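ESCALATION

Customer reports they have been waiting on this structure for their group meeting. Please prioritize. Original submission:
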Amino acid sequence: MYHNFIPLSGYTKRSQTNMLDRATIFYDLLKTRRSVREFSDEAVSLKIIDSCILSAGTAPSGANQQPWHFVVIKDPAVKRNIRLAAEKEEQEFYAGRAGETWLETLQPLGTSADKPFLDKAPVLIAIFEQKYQLDQNQKQLKNYYSKESTGIATGMLITALHNAGLATLTHTPSPMNFLSKILRRPTGERPFLLLVVGFPAENVMVPDISKKALDEIRTMR
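Update from on-call: job pushed to the front of the queue and completed.
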Protein backbone atom coordinates (compact mmCIF):
# COMPACT_ATOMS: atom_id res chain seq x y z
CA MET A 1 0.00 0.00 0.00
CA TYR A 2 1.23 3.49 -0.81
CA HIS A 3 1.38 5.63 2.34
CA ASN A 4 2.01 8.90 0.52
CA PHE A 5 0.16 10.34 -2.44
CA ILE A 6 1.05 13.48 -4.38
CA PRO A 7 -0.87 15.55 -6.92
CA LEU A 8 -0.70 14.38 -10.53
CA SER A 9 1.77 16.52 -12.45
CA GLY A 10 2.92 16.65 -16.03
CA TYR A 11 -0.53 16.00 -17.48
CA THR A 12 -1.89 18.71 -19.77
CA LYS A 13 -5.50 18.72 -20.93
CA ARG A 14 -5.46 19.32 -24.69
CA SER A 15 -8.06 19.76 -27.37
CA GLN A 16 -8.82 16.59 -29.31
CA THR A 17 -7.58 18.30 -32.48
CA ASN A 18 -4.22 18.95 -30.85
CA MET A 19 -4.16 15.41 -29.46
CA LEU A 20 -4.74 13.95 -32.91
CA ASP A 21 -2.00 16.15 -34.37
CA ARG A 22 0.45 14.96 -31.72
CA ALA A 23 -0.56 11.33 -32.16
CA THR A 24 -0.14 11.58 -35.93
CA ILE A 25 3.27 13.22 -35.67
CA PHE A 26 4.39 10.52 -33.24
CA TYR A 27 3.16 7.77 -35.56
CA ASP A 28 4.94 9.39 -38.50
CA LEU A 29 8.15 9.24 -36.47
CA LEU A 30 7.76 5.66 -35.29
CA LYS A 31 6.80 4.22 -38.67
CA THR A 32 10.28 5.15 -39.90
CA ARG A 33 11.88 2.84 -37.34
CA ARG A 34 13.56 -0.18 -38.91
CA SER A 35 15.69 -2.99 -37.56
CA VAL A 36 19.22 -2.48 -38.85
CA ARG A 37 21.86 -5.20 -39.17
CA GLU A 38 24.72 -3.12 -40.53
CA PHE A 39 26.10 -0.43 -38.26
CA SER A 40 28.70 2.29 -38.41
CA ASP A 41 31.40 2.19 -35.75
CA GLU A 42 30.82 5.89 -35.00
CA ALA A 43 30.77 6.46 -31.25
CA VAL A 44 27.57 7.38 -29.42
CA SER A 45 27.58 9.65 -26.38
CA LEU A 46 26.85 7.79 -23.16
CA LYS A 47 24.72 10.77 -22.10
CA ILE A 48 22.30 9.98 -24.95
CA ILE A 49 22.13 6.31 -23.97
CA ASP A 50 21.61 7.14 -20.30
CA SER A 51 18.82 9.61 -21.09
CA CYS A 52 17.03 6.95 -23.13
CA ILE A 53 17.44 4.41 -20.33
CA LEU A 54 15.95 6.91 -17.90
CA SER A 55 12.97 7.15 -20.26
CA ALA A 56 12.66 3.35 -20.24
CA GLY A 57 12.79 3.45 -16.45
CA THR A 58 9.56 5.46 -16.37
CA ALA A 59 7.66 2.40 -17.66
CA PRO A 60 4.76 1.05 -15.60
CA SER A 61 5.44 -2.16 -13.69
CA GLY A 62 3.65 -4.55 -11.37
CA ALA A 63 3.41 -2.89 -7.93
CA ASN A 64 6.03 -0.39 -9.17
CA GLN A 65 8.76 -2.99 -8.54
CA GLN A 66 10.63 -1.93 -11.70
CA PRO A 67 12.04 -5.44 -12.31
CA TRP A 68 14.58 -4.57 -14.99
CA HIS A 69 18.26 -3.85 -15.32
CA PHE A 70 20.15 -2.45 -18.31
CA VAL A 71 23.82 -3.26 -18.90
CA VAL A 72 25.49 -0.87 -21.38
CA ILE A 73 28.40 -2.50 -23.18
CA LYS A 74 31.00 -0.43 -25.01
CA ASP A 75 34.17 -2.41 -24.25
CA PRO A 76 35.35 -4.06 -27.51
CA ALA A 77 36.62 -7.14 -25.66
CA VAL A 78 33.29 -7.70 -23.92
CA LYS A 79 31.41 -7.17 -27.20
CA ARG A 80 33.70 -9.71 -28.85
CA ASN A 81 33.01 -12.30 -26.15
CA ILE A 82 29.29 -11.73 -26.54
CA ARG A 83 29.51 -12.15 -30.31
CA LEU A 84 31.43 -15.43 -30.02
CA ALA A 85 28.96 -16.83 -27.50
CA ALA A 86 25.93 -15.62 -29.46
CA GLU A 87 27.20 -17.05 -32.74
CA LYS A 88 27.81 -20.41 -31.08
CA GLU A 89 24.13 -20.56 -30.09
CA GLU A 90 23.03 -19.22 -33.48
CA GLN A 91 25.01 -21.84 -35.37
CA GLU A 92 23.12 -24.56 -33.51
CA PHE A 93 19.88 -22.67 -34.12
CA TYR A 94 20.38 -22.47 -37.89
CA ALA A 95 21.77 -26.01 -38.03
CA GLY A 96 18.48 -27.49 -36.93
CA ARG A 97 17.36 -26.36 -33.50
CA ALA A 98 14.99 -23.80 -35.02
CA GLY A 99 13.07 -26.23 -37.21
CA GLU A 100 12.32 -25.88 -40.91
CA THR A 101 9.18 -23.75 -40.52
CA TRP A 102 10.92 -21.07 -38.46
CA LEU A 103 13.91 -20.98 -40.80
CA GLU A 104 11.60 -20.64 -43.81
CA THR A 105 9.92 -17.68 -42.10
CA LEU A 106 13.28 -16.01 -41.49
CA GLN A 107 14.64 -16.68 -44.98
CA PRO A 108 13.22 -13.50 -46.66
CA LEU A 109 14.99 -11.35 -44.06
CA GLY A 110 18.41 -12.70 -45.00
CA THR A 111 19.52 -13.51 -41.45
CA SER A 112 22.23 -16.03 -40.62
CA ALA A 113 24.35 -17.28 -37.73
CA ASP A 114 26.97 -14.61 -38.47
CA LYS A 115 26.42 -11.56 -36.23
CA PRO A 116 29.10 -8.96 -37.11
CA PHE A 117 26.93 -6.14 -35.73
CA LEU A 118 27.74 -7.35 -32.21
CA ASP A 119 31.33 -6.25 -32.83
CA LYS A 120 30.74 -3.27 -35.09
CA ALA A 121 27.95 -1.35 -33.35
CA PRO A 122 29.31 1.09 -30.75
CA VAL A 123 26.85 0.08 -28.02
CA LEU A 124 25.09 -3.08 -26.89
CA ILE A 125 22.45 -2.93 -24.19
CA ALA A 126 21.74 -6.20 -22.42
CA ILE A 127 18.32 -6.08 -20.77
CA PHE A 128 17.71 -8.31 -17.78
CA GLU A 129 14.43 -9.28 -16.15
CA GLN A 130 14.67 -9.38 -12.38
CA LYS A 131 12.64 -12.33 -11.11
CA TYR A 132 13.10 -11.28 -7.50
CA GLN A 133 14.82 -8.68 -5.36
CA LEU A 134 16.57 -8.94 -2.02
CA ASP A 135 15.49 -7.08 1.09
CA GLN A 136 17.92 -5.71 3.68
CA ASN A 137 18.16 -9.19 5.23
CA GLN A 138 18.94 -10.79 1.84
CA LYS A 139 15.52 -12.44 1.76
CA GLN A 140 14.10 -13.02 -1.72
CA LEU A 141 11.05 -10.93 -2.58
CA LYS A 142 9.22 -11.99 -5.73
CA ASN A 143 8.70 -9.43 -8.47
CA TYR A 144 5.24 -9.68 -10.01
CA TYR A 145 4.59 -9.42 -13.75
CA SER A 146 8.34 -9.10 -14.27
CA LYS A 147 8.33 -10.31 -17.88
CA GLU A 148 5.45 -8.05 -18.92
CA SER A 149 6.98 -5.07 -17.12
CA THR A 150 10.42 -5.62 -18.66
CA GLY A 151 8.83 -5.96 -22.10
CA ILE A 152 7.09 -2.60 -21.72
CA ALA A 153 10.31 -0.92 -20.57
CA THR A 154 12.19 -2.44 -23.50
CA GLY A 155 9.64 -1.09 -25.97
CA MET A 156 9.95 2.35 -24.43
CA LEU A 157 13.74 2.15 -24.66
CA ILE A 158 13.61 1.26 -28.37
CA THR A 159 11.22 4.17 -28.93
CA ALA A 160 13.42 6.60 -27.00
CA LEU A 161 16.52 5.55 -28.95
CA HIS A 162 14.72 5.96 -32.27
CA ASN A 163 13.42 9.36 -31.20
CA ALA A 164 17.00 10.37 -30.39
CA GLY A 165 18.12 9.40 -33.89
CA LEU A 166 19.74 6.03 -33.26
CA ALA A 167 19.21 2.74 -35.06
CA THR A 168 18.51 -0.44 -33.12
CA LEU A 169 18.28 -4.19 -33.56
CA THR A 170 16.61 -6.57 -31.14
CA HIS A 171 18.71 -9.72 -30.83
CA THR A 172 17.52 -12.79 -28.95
CA PRO A 173 19.92 -15.73 -29.31
CA SER A 174 18.44 -18.77 -27.60
CA PRO A 175 19.43 -19.60 -24.96
CA MET A 176 20.94 -16.35 -23.68
CA ASN A 177 22.40 -17.60 -20.41
CA PHE A 178 25.89 -16.67 -21.61
CA LEU A 179 24.98 -13.00 -21.09
CA SER A 180 24.56 -13.55 -17.36
CA LYS A 181 27.99 -15.17 -17.17
CA ILE A 182 29.88 -12.68 -19.34
CA LEU A 183 28.28 -9.67 -17.69
CA ARG A 184 28.44 -11.15 -14.17
CA ARG A 185 24.80 -10.64 -13.34
CA PRO A 186 23.22 -12.03 -10.14
CA THR A 187 21.19 -15.23 -10.12
CA GLY A 188 17.90 -13.39 -9.65
CA GLU A 189 18.19 -11.85 -13.13
CA ARG A 190 17.34 -13.50 -16.44
CA PRO A 191 18.51 -12.24 -19.85
CA PHE A 192 15.52 -10.75 -21.63
CA LEU A 193 16.93 -9.22 -24.81
CA LEU A 194 20.14 -7.88 -26.34
CA LEU A 195 19.70 -4.51 -28.02
CA VAL A 196 22.21 -3.39 -30.64
CA VAL A 197 22.48 0.41 -30.83
CA GLY A 198 24.29 2.88 -33.07
CA PHE A 199 24.21 4.70 -36.37
CA PRO A 200 23.30 2.74 -39.51
CA ALA A 201 26.14 2.01 -41.91
CA GLU A 202 26.35 4.25 -44.96
CA ASN A 203 24.03 3.11 -47.76
CA VAL A 204 22.64 0.33 -45.58
CA MET A 205 19.87 -1.78 -47.11
CA VAL A 206 16.93 -3.21 -45.16
CA PRO A 207 14.26 -5.76 -46.13
CA ASP A 208 11.25 -4.39 -48.00
CA ILE A 209 8.55 -5.14 -45.46
CA SER A 210 5.28 -3.56 -44.36
CA LYS A 211 3.22 -3.45 -41.18
CA LYS A 212 -0.32 -4.67 -40.75
CA ALA A 213 -3.11 -2.20 -41.49
CA LEU A 214 -5.20 -0.72 -38.71
CA ASP A 215 -8.19 -2.99 -39.37
CA GLU A 216 -5.89 -6.00 -38.96
CA ILE A 217 -4.66 -5.03 -35.51
CA ARG A 218 -7.68 -3.20 -34.06
CA THR A 219 -11.25 -4.40 -33.45
CA MET A 220 -14.15 -2.15 -32.49
CA ARG A 221 -16.92 -3.37 -30.21
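Sent to customer with the following note: The beta strands are 68-73, 123-130, 132-134, 140-142, 167-171, 189-198.
Escalation resolved.
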